[in-house]
């Protein structure tokens, strides 16, 4: 672990104002009572937009409508499985465990507990005040229990795995009523390559609030650990580029290299021409920096990469293939992937177009589709906005943040990642038209052709609202719109 972490202060310096109550109860404050009333109404099936912080209300919607978490749960379930995350996280967990142990020593006098989880919300370690730890164990807040939102509802660890930045969950903001007398703050550590959570660190306190200095401390603390993740990403890219350079001379056609997240690190000229990458990124020379890598606009490619990473499992020489719609207006093209392995871990894939060898990709036929959302949840300022799908004209991705363009203005989606938003809106008539844009086909007002034949969708003619259509989506879009 590199970098310095500031001293940790868990207890407020001076309890004052509305937080000072005669019996010292965390749930007796006026603000907590307001949240508790909102929780009762929401748990009874009502849809609410106010009275609760937007990040908490978004979590409640996930717990109630997507995960269907039992709000009467009083003990976290045990965690299944015994494997760590897919990348080499030994150094990361070691650094995070050391940080948790140091923080645990610092909070012993404040009656707090520090916990560290993996990316699935499974608790790996617990430190702090012994009496607070014993109380926490009554709820199974202990190693080898699962505190993901899907298992245990809104809580500091689980909710931090769903969003970016530090998360505080105080009193009745917890989805499960049995945890209403806990205050907790957590933050996730994310893989810079895939964007997926790798781990989290959380501080919990029984029947007392946490200092406002805790979230900034968490941010500073994980920055030290994230330096190791970034260093690992650069190291992996160097390995993949070296393998690409070694094999590119033997490649007879379009050839590229991808990282674990399905982003292009390097490509030969034939692949650049096929994918239309010219002038957009430095991938021809090799993009070591994660921010310089390019995400191909090929439907289904991310799913295939995830499948390949899972099937390869650190096996040198593994190969598999899929047929993907690479060239617009043509039959799907075979794409073979070969694993790049370092120290028994898959660090990337070499991809050959027009080649079919190895294990065949079977698709996601067995994947279960959850219930359709009652509404799309957005966030604006300090409010949660509930949107009917018909209100959304289009969605635009800014890296992992998704913006919903609606009659009520530009609203940030509570769900991260355009692919996740697309998954929930496809059944409502939304289609991907560009790697950064998803449009409501029912809201297309006009279509305009550019000088070079490119297409633009005019979603609102009054506001001159244009959405570009990538060439690989143009044929399907014309067919769907009947033009």
UniProtKB/TrEMBL annotation:
Key word Cell inner membrane present: no
SMART domains: LytTR (SM00850)
Keyword presence, DNA-binding: yes
GO molecular function: DNA binding; phosphorelay response regulator activity
InterPro entries found in the cross-reference section: GAF-like_dom_sf (IPR029016), LytR-like (IPR046947), LytTR_DNA-bd_dom (IPR007492)
PROSITE patterns linked to this entry: HTH_LYTTR
Disordered: annotated segments: 1-24
Keywords noted in UniProt: DNA-binding
Residue intervals of the HTH LytTR-type domain: 381-483
PANTHER family: STAGE 0 SPORULATION PROTEIN A HOMOLOG (PTHR37299:SF1), TRANSCRIPTIONAL REGULATOR-RELATED (PTHR37299)
Name assigned to this protein: DNA-binding protein
